Write the structure tokens for this entry.
Amino acid sequence: MNDFSLWDILRNLLLALRWTVALSAIAFVGGGLVGALLLLARLGGGPFFDKAVALYVQLFQGTPLLMQLFLAYFGIALLGIDVSPWTAAALALTLYTSAFLAEIWRGCVASIPKGQWEASSSLALRFGEQLRHIILPQALKIAIPPTVGFLVQVIKGTALASVIGFVELTKAGSMISNATFKPFVVFSCVALMYFALCFPVSLLARQLERKTHGRRA
Amino acid sequence: MEFDFGAILVDWRMLAKGVAWTLGLTAIATVIGMVLGTLCAWARASGPAWLRWVVGAYVELIRNTPFIVQLFFIFFGLPAAGVKLAPEVASVIAMVLNLGAYSTEIIRAGIESTPRGQIEAAQSLALDKVQVFTRVILPPAMKKVWPAMVSQIIIVMLGSAVCSQISVEELSYAANLIQSRNFRAFEAFIVATLVYLALSILARRLLNWLGPRFFFGR
């Protein structure tokens, strides 16, 4: 059997870390786009879309991400499309992220005082103009800290893609641990790498939050 | 493409057993995790500097790593250091540590919002430190943060689906077992997902009902 040095372990984990970062980025950007569409549908689409988006959010927030991944993996296969774990994971995490971001952003829009809507409509602005010039610029400021905070959840969520066989950091950790019989060392390194990725983002979110609250006070 | 949900529902006994495990693990983790979170919140609010630092490190470490990695570390990693655990025990420990870290922050937020005057008033009534904390600071703090606490408990329950990966026979393990016997993967996971959805709705109602009766008076 090969003898793995700590450096071999670290090097292989770092290579796999790229895929964790890539999957997080896709899910976050894709989820942000879909989430923005959902938000618009909810704000301007009348009671039907309001209900439909609320249901969508409830479905993703009330079920395990693991099940969502399984459903994406086996569901796309049912359509007769040959699906890779990569595609299934990207799709499931994008939809998961979109649901949470849509809900976070809806809260931010809801926190804009009603007078802002009324004042802008009394200036004869149409719905789109109200959003663009009055509501969204204000909501955006409040939305940034929790959005950055949610990025941490997305990064941690990508670890579940390991279960459907996508080789990112966690899956690589399992494989290396099986090959080296050093689970303690390997999973410590895996945990530290996630920490190194997530902790700065958490700190940034907290700092942004302090700034926003400071400005409001 | 046709669906056959009957093939899944025939095995309802396995699903029911899975539900029982999911709820059982969650219930134990909730009780111990909240006690842990309360102790840590107290330590962080009024403990010595070194203890505050240790609790802070614990909270950040848990909140910035995935649950599945915490679980694998406890189940696969610790035996190498001489601590061998049954899958169910490892799952409970992971869930407790996870909920403990999040509830530390949640409860701390509640504690910090207690007006200083209330604490001083309690002290002037000659209540000791523990009494002040458990009778004056904690009940209104819990009341304020209970909705966040309920959400976190449900997140932990949904997260416990991952425990199937170390062969704990909870709900998603049952779904996996059923689909491995009849190859109806999509149906099996749809059913399990809907059951999870029902569980999270029911758990929210139950906890919203329990909270006021149990922790902070009506």
Observations:
- The interface with chain B takes residues 58-59, 62-68, 70-71, 74-75, 78-80, 152, 156-157, 159-160, 162-163, 170, 173-174, 177, 182-184, 186-188, 190-191, 194-195, 198-199, 202 of chain A (CB under 8 Å).
- Chain A has one domain: 6-216.
